[in-house]
Specification:
homodimer, about 240 residues, alpha+beta, Arc Repressor Mutant, subunit A, Chorismate lyase, 2 domains, 6-stranded antiparallel beta sheet, 3-stranded antiparallel beta sheet, elongated, DNA-binding
Chain lengths: ~240, ~240
DNA sequence: TGTATAAGGTTGTATATACAGTATAGTGAA
DNA sequence: TTCACTATACTGTATATACAACCTTATACA
């Protein structure tokens, strides 16, 4: 049940970085210092530092030390943005209404997506977001009650589901998949679009401390929305090939 | 100079996966079998398998074994990846052919996109990339001759345009826009898809030292490709609301 | 036949140890 | 002062060993 030692060391270091106590460029404890602090072997300290380096949080220089890395510039495309804020930023009026709200038993596919060992109960929410009265986003979301037990007690008139989850659960990992889809008849009706209007489907999973918090599919009518990002590439170059 | 042992073991396994000798679902040698084969310690074999698992190539089940993972047909969202490499990573065959190659005078729209004060000459390239003979990406690219003067002298049989530009020009800024589109008749023909098949259009501009290097639109048939990214969130939290 | 138990293979983690390579600071000699 | 050398600290890799947890299969037993 208890986490492995190397994972605890990783969490210890990540905690200092996330809290802002250890800032980019700052030196983190050497392997031998971690050995002393945690009474572990050097190989265990090495694994923690090596994995954090692979994850992009640290950089190591032989003979010198290990340092907090500059956080990479992420695009708004992949940030966890709140559609209510985006619409407000444009000076438009955001409205939303809840289409479906229930607690379900996870299907086999959902059990796998949530990385659960056994089927369990999940919150299910379907919502339509509108900009100046025009539907622009269909939100179909599943939430792990273990990660956000009070999710289903919220009324989402003032705070969107994304806004609530970001505030309630510290997300430390994200996965995005974007694809083009044709809307199902249900989706056509909810978004008020024709059957030949293509849509952008943004599928997102988010993790907190190794557990999947939520799985959501955001569907945008192509004529009303595109996803955009612009950013500086990091110095060392995240550009592969 | 010579690569570490664990890296050699990784390459050995990746080679079998890339060549197609080891297919998804197939069992790969256990740690103890690798110990025998390569005369290494179990910890070294463990590191090779563990890192390949973290990289997404393998999946491991305690008490059972290690298996080749199903490679998803996905393109990276945030990195500047080369489609030839992506296809090779899945162990498939990449082919490409040049549809159009010319030097044109920039239109008003292109002049603006390239942030030029006056219309100028631009390289124009249209290419179709195929995976195992099936078209998966239509590349429509414009290149600024000032940034990459020798671009049009390349034959892109061994190196893709993306690969050439990344190596030749230090890109320091990127802009991505993703949208869902219906293919034009020309695009339908080049990608060999029907008129009702939606496509994902990834529009990218890249800058080097303040000048636009290239503007490219990559069109993917929705049924054959999705765009994907997964990453640890940066410490202080790029998560906006 | 059906069920509990044991054995063996597999991954996961942790330790102690060793040696190589690199960068830096300090020391001593020219 | 300047240069060469040395000691030290740090990372990188590799090995041998150990134990735990998990799964499958074979075996013994009722």
């Amino acid at each position: 049940m208890t986490a492995p030692l190397y994972a605890k060391v990783k969490e210890h270091i990540l905690g200092h970085i996330r809290s802002g106590a250890w800032t980019p460029g700052m030196r983190v404890p050497s392997e031998n210092e971690l050995v002393e602090t945690f009474s572990i072997s050097r190989m265990t300290a090495n694994r923690a530092l090596r994995e954090l380096t692979a994850d992009g949080f640290l950089s190591r220089v032989p003979g010198v030390g290990t340092f907090v890395k500059e956080p990479p510039a992420r695009s708004s495309l992949v940030e966890l943005r709140n559609i209510a804020d985006e619409i407000a930023t444009r000076g438009h009026r955001h409205t939303a209404h809840i289409e479906t709200r229930e607690t379900i038993e996870a299907s086999a596919a959902l059990t796998e997506e949530f990385e659960l060992r056994l089927p369990a109960k999940l919150f299910h929410l379907v919502m339509v977001h509108s900009e100046n009265g025009v539907p622009v986003q269909l939100e179909e979301r599943y939430v792990n009650p273990f990660a956000a037990p009070h999710f289903n007690e919220q009324d989402f008139s003032a705070v969107t589901p994304t806004g609530y989850l970001v505030a309630a659960v510290p997300v430390d990992e994200l996965e995005h998949t974007v694809e083009a889809v044709m809307p199902t008849p249900d989706q056509q009706a909810l978004l008020d679009i024709g059957e030949h209007e293509p849509c952008l489907a943004l599928h997102r999973r988010s993790w907190s401390k190794g557990h999947v918090v939520t799985v959501v599919t955001l569907t945008y009518p192509a004529s009303r929305y595109a996803l955009h990002s612009r950013y500086k590439t990091s110095p060392s170059g995240t550009l592969s090939q």
